[in-house]
Amino acid sequence: MIRDNAWTTYTAKDLKAVEKLSKDYIDFLNNGKTERECTELLVEMAEKNGYMNLEDVIKKGQKLGYGSKVYAVNMGKAVMMLNIGKDIVNDGMNVLGAHLDSPRLDIKQNPLYEAEELGYLNTHYYGGIKKYQYVALPLALHGVVVKPNGEKIVINIGEKDEDPVFFVSDLLIHLAEDQMKKVAAKVVEGEDLDILVGSKPVKDKKEKEAVKAALLKLLKDEYGIEEDDFISAEIEAVPAGKAKEAGLDRSMILGYGHDDRCCAYPSALAMMDVENPDTTACGLFVDKEEIGSVGATGMESHFFEDMMREVLDRMGIYSELNLSRCLRNSRMLSSDVNAALDPLYIDKFEKQNASRFGHGLVFCKFTGARGKSGSNDANAEYLAELRRTMDKHKVVYQTAELGKVDIGGGGTIAYILSLYGMQVIDSGIAVLSMHAPWEAISKADLYEAYKGYKAFLIEG
Q: Burial, 249: exposed, middle or buried (Cβ in 10 Å; 0-12, 13-18, 19+)?
């Protein structure tokens, strides 16, 4: 059954709310192109809405209880938010979980080199990308350089009108006969995704690498960066430019990083808009999902568990049994995107079970691949509860899978949280051109996601 298109249900008031949310989200996208930048934006949002830093609460020996709002930051790349309800142990929590990282090119630790009087930065791509999409594309550099003395230099080059941009060169069609015979995965090799950053040499004929020398001088003079400082740097090359409204009717948003910031932002907004919930509201915004949720800032780390221990301790009710009960009694929406039905590639989708632009929040009962391998498969009872909640709050929603059975497949952080015994389902927004440098979503779906996430935090 194909459900209603959300646009056909809107009043003038709804349309105004859609445009307001879309404008604010575009600002978030433009200012949050990395997980570090998104974390800073989310912390700013939380503090404006009365959330306290859990680290400060612990240092000051403050007590927490019903109505307390706290947040915790994991290494500047992930955030947990908590709005404490009446009985966190027996009622559990209503958890919204999204990720802040997106596919990109990462600058290597020994990146700068010169070849044929051109200066390059060597890269290592991050996440699942079609490598050929990153050539001949304006790129910006975002990140941090940390010097041995602890000084942190923030890098953001390529977003302002007066900034230079960077790019990976492509082979001209006139010389590309052999290249054009390659399969798409091999048209551009990973080691060929090196970013061109300069071509002007120093005026010193004795200098063997005059362009590299000029670039090192520029880095030193303008940014205070030495070549060795790349060792302790995290710099990401991302598509340069702003997210924009798309379509003659302005019904869509085209931008970098919708996966998964189009779920993270409305999740955070829902957290801000829920006051004194009966059931504890929790927002998880994590890193490293695109490479398997591994590492200290991914969902597989112990950060969430450890912070919950700290919260229960500040409430005076910590025990491993209470922690286990709290997590087991919780419910979660793993807020991640789904593949929107694309008429140009219709043979890859099963139309009756594909997510569609404008048809609202997507619930994906299971992900995985082929025979549901690697999937969290949500329980029917939980889906029934969610149906009641969404219908009660007049949320337009749909159900979907990720492509045809033997073609599709994917994963999110859902399976990790399900290990605690909590009820978990994937829910998010339909995206066109997922994992491309520029992805597209529907404004209506963004609005319905916000409504659905807020309803979930209120009702569970």
A: exposed
Residues 97 and 128 in one domain: no
pLDDT in tens, 238-295: 999 999 999 999 999 999 999 999 999 999 999 999 999 999 999 999 999 999 999 9
Q: Is 437 within the bounds of a domain?
A: yes
We report the CATH number of the domain holding residue 111 as 2.30.250.10
- Condensed to tens digits (0 to 9), the pLDDT of residues 128-147 reads 999 999 999 999 999 999 99
In-domain check, residue 248 = no
| Cβ 107 vs Cβ 123: under 8 Å | yes
| Residue 315: Cβ-neighbour burial (10 angstroms; 0-12, 13-18, 19+) | middle
Split at pLDDT 50, 70, 90, the class of 460 is low
Instruction: Kindly state whether residues 72 and 138 are assigned to the same domain.
Output: no
What is the reported pTM? 0.96
* DSSP character string of 81-150: EEE--S-TTTS-EEEEEEE----EEEEEEEEEEEETTEEEEEEEEESS--GGGGSS--EEEEEEEE-TTS
Overall average pLDDT of the 155-166 stretch: 97
State residue 1's pLDDT score.
62
Encoded tokens for 205: 């004929």
Same domain, residue pair 74 and 143? no
Helix (H) or strand (E) holding 184: helix 184-187
Q: How far apart are CA 216 and CA 230, in angstroms?
A: 11
CA distances for 415 relative to 74, 293, 457, angstroms: 21, 11, 20
Helix (H) or strand (E) run with residue 416 in it: helix 414-418
Mean pLDDT confidence for 313-330 = 98
- In contact, 131 and 123? CB cutoff 8 Å: no
Contact present, 122 and 110 (Cβ < 8 Å): yes
Q: Half-sphere exposure of 95 toward its Cβ, with a 13 Å CA cutoff?
A: 31
- Segment 203-242, tens digit of pLDDT: 988 889 999 999 999 999 999 999 999 999 999 999 999 9
**Cα–Cα distance, 365 to 385 (Å, whole number):** 13
What's residue 369's pLDDT? 74
Q: What's the order of all strands across the beta sheet hosting 118-126?
A: 152-157, 139-146, 233-239, 104-115, 118-126, 195-198
C-alpha dist (Å) from residue 249 to 5, 51, 60, 61, 167: 15, 38, 53, 54, 32
Query: Which residues, other chains included, contact 87 with Cβ-Cβ below 8 Å and sequence gap of 6+?
Result: none
